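fyi for ur records
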Amino acid sequence: MFDKNTYIRRRKSLQTKVKSGIFLFLGNNEASMNYPANTYRYRQDSNFVYFFGLQLDNLAAIIDIDERKEIIFGNDYTIDDIIWMGNQPSLQSLAESCGISEVQPYNQLSEYLLKAKQAGRQVHFLPPYRDDNKIFLHQTLDIPFEELKNAASVEFIKAVVALREIKDDEEIAEMEKACNVGVQMHLAAVRYCKAGMIERELAGLVEGIALSGGNGVSFPVILSQNGETLHNHNHEQILENGRLLLVDAGAELKSVYSSDYTRTFPVSGKFTQKQKEIYEIVLQANTEAIAMIKPGLTYQKVHYHATTVITKGLTKLGLMKGNPEEAVSVGAHALFMPHGLGHMIGLDVHDMEDLGENYVGYDEQTQRSTIFGHGSLRCGKELKKGFVLTVEPGIYFIPQLIDKWEKENKFTDYINYNKVREYIGFGGIRIEDDVLVTDTGYRVLGQPLPKTVEEIEKIME
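which gave:
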């Protein structure tokens, strides 16, 4: 936890953005894995962490704007709990640690909300993603399950996004730590990679480093020689010389701030000429995109620049043809990069995605593209000081997508399918860094993580 004044300040700022009603915060409860007492690793709701800092289950809170009240709802631990878990803090002491003086038993929350509803007062809640919280909202506020997402308060969502999207110095310091753990994860993968290993041996090593650094991984490790599958969580292949290994992984600290890196490297320790040519295009897109970052520029423009760099590079190699800018404008590049350039990162690896991507990554000035590939950009809006984003261009050779587009004669003015077919089985390459928007430009967070061909080959000698 940060100092309690941080949470007091955040809650005060939130209350200036909505005129009336009650802000409802539902914490996360334990989730059973295969029987009630055997649970998944506990993870508190990120919005609850942001405004209250408490990472325990069976908690909820309200901020009553009209009556100027802040209340934590929960229950003190029983002797049975203490026998299994050891001595635990009281609910009162937990509340005081984040600057709140009033506590009530958890079962009083429903009564408080019902009285407010009967009085015609608005209960602002965020889109629920856990089933137990959906059930609570359904039963307490009498909202049909299928309407819960649309019934969430847009005012509340926008207010939270406006606060959480700007990282302060305390948050940036935590993210630096998370990035440094992420760097160690990726260095270990590069250093210990060798032909004959099973992918999961490396994946386990990477995950272990994340766990030793805090809460473990910030998302399930992506580690695969089939890098053309964007979110490949299968780790059962034997590493082979001549193939590329794509590793996309990050760490989550005890504070639940996250990191997210991707590196791609040759299992043999040496890039082939073909691999090097594609890799250098992705690296150029990564470095040029990072160099563009500054306040006032939309991330959508940075994305378009990165995809243009990729298209120009592929045109030089003969995989694409025609005018690169035109090819990008119609989405022909998406055969090779069907995803966006990056996303916000913070308390979540895809920060605030539970609130809705369009609220987080877009606004009235910047609208999401409807073109395949461009439409997958999670964050396109104008950059501000304090944003932290990933920059992750890639090139992939996806056999099924190549087959589909070729059969449809799609973008034949821009794609040389005969040449592209020579790359079936190549896999995919992605290079990703976490970047802070500063006053006048950018800063790459974390210790330097090698990404040039020369740096990677030297580590793998």
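The mean pLDDT is 97. thats all i got for now
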